[in-house]
Amino acid sequence: MTPDLPKFNQRFPWLGGDLQTLRNFIRRSDWPDPAALGGTRMEFPMSDGTGDHLTGTYQSPVSNAGKPLVVLVHGMSGCQGSAYMLYSARHFLAEGFPVLRLNLRGAGPAGPLCVERYHAGRTVDFEAVLDSLPEDMTANGVVAVGYSLGGNMILKYLGERGEDSRLRAAVSVSAPVDLGEASDRMLRPRNRIYRKFLVQELVRETLDGKQPDRGPGIDALRACESVREFDEIYTAPMNGYADVQAYYDDCSARYYTADIRTPILVIHAPNDPWIPIGCYAETINARNPALTLCLEHNGGHVGFHGTCGAVAWHDRAAVKWFGTVAG
Questions:
Q1: Is 295 within 8 Å of 202 (Cβ atoms)?
Q2: CA distances from 268 to 104, 178, 255, 280 (A)
Q3: Could you tell me if residue 212 is inside a domain?
Q4: What residues does 306 pair with on adjacent strands?
Q5: What is the CATH number of the domain that holds 95?
Q6: Of 57, 62, 210, 294, which has the fewest beta carbons less than 10 angstroms from its beta carbon?
Q7: 135-143: average pLDDT
Q8: Prior bond to 13 cis, omega within 30?
Q9: Cβ atoms within 10 A of the Cβ of 323, count?
Q10: Residue 297 lies in a domain
Q11: Please, are residues 221 and 205 in contact by the beta-carbon 8 Å criterion?
Q12: Using CA atoms, how far apart are residues 62 and 46, in angstroms rounded to an integer?
């Protein structure tokens, strides 16, 4: 079933893919106050022998009329305090949904609690969190929204689990469904500022956490100049992959979408400066009725700041989607 999604029109002055992408960075003073949102800290111990714990913040709306729990999954170098996570949490809470803003392994508040780090295909962690949620939080079911890398993870999880997914529905926003193509896009000269920022954040996040006994040294990490190089010297070998291409091949959601059986709304903007549209045109299987692909041209990367108001269009679309397929 496809809902009648609201129309997206970019809002002045956030015109074009770059300004849509950068709006939240430029307007940091507008970010929701995490303290005002409130919530309860949660920890999710991993049972893989590492001693690592994922963390998250759970928030319940003033009035929950039987709506499912929304698990929000951040993107690369993000965490529960990322702007899009805070904006989305505020909107879902206002619409009566309970929310869990999840920190993936080693991200944000989970950094000091983890030796290992999340990556785009580490779905076992996401599944472990779903399996350990208390029954009173999941009584009305669970849905999820993944942003960028988090969107790729959710798509991969749904493809791996097929009919056995723990989710009633999901939304993916600006996911790099082909990790190799996305990393190549970042190498373009026009993306050098984005590339420098992301690499600095990845290195900072890695060095701020517990340091494993193996892996590249600090100097090697700080010398990285691209996401591909970071994945080559850190992500791939630290997670048992022979090389960076093996990591990309195993973890790109494009290889799992045909097996998805849970309704998922896949949102992407063709003018996304980070994720090439070819990833979607060649990957998303239109014959899979569980997938609804929504291409909104001027949304940028996890932007979608529209004339509909201060709430990002993808948040409005997600509420409509969940009301239709998981209501």
A1: no
A2: 22, 13, 18, 8
A3: no
A4: 10
A5: 3.40.50.1820
A6: 62
A7: 96
A8: yes
A9: 14
A10: yes
A11: no
A12: 31
Quote the tokens at residue 112. Answer: 């000091």
How many Cα atoms occupy the beta-carbon half-sphere of 121 within 13 Å?
Answer: 23
**Amino acid sitting at position 51:** G
Q: How far apart (Å, rounded) are the C-alpha atoms in residues 280 and 289?
A: 16
- Enclosing domain of residue 86: 17-177+252-325
Q: Which residue has the tokens 């929950």?
A: 64
Question: What are the tokens at 209?
Answer: 């956490």
* Four-point Cα dihedral 239, 242, 247, 249, nearest 10: -150
Q: How many domains does the chain have?
A: 1
Residue 292: is it exposed, middle or buried by C-beta count within 10 angstroms (0-12/13-18/19+)?
A: buried
Q: Which two tokens stand for residue 314?
A: 């993808």
Say if 89 falls within a structural domain: yes
CA distance readout (Å), 25 to 22, 71, 197: 5, 23, 12
Distance CA 264, CA 27 (A): 30
The structure's pTM equals: 0.96
CA dist 280 and 261 (Å) reads 18
pLDDT per residue as tens digits for the range 168-198: 999 999 999 999 999 999 999 999 999 999 9
Residues 139/143/149/152 CA torsion (nearest 10 deg): 120
Tokens of 40: 């309860």
- Closest-CA residue to 294 (of 5, 72, 1): 5
Token couple for 152:
């790729």
Backbone angles phi, psi at 231, to 5 degrees: -65, -35
The tens digit of pLDDT for each residue in 203-224 reads 999 998 887 777 788 899 999 9
Write the CA distances from 79 to 4, 82, 157, integer angstroms: 31, 6, 19
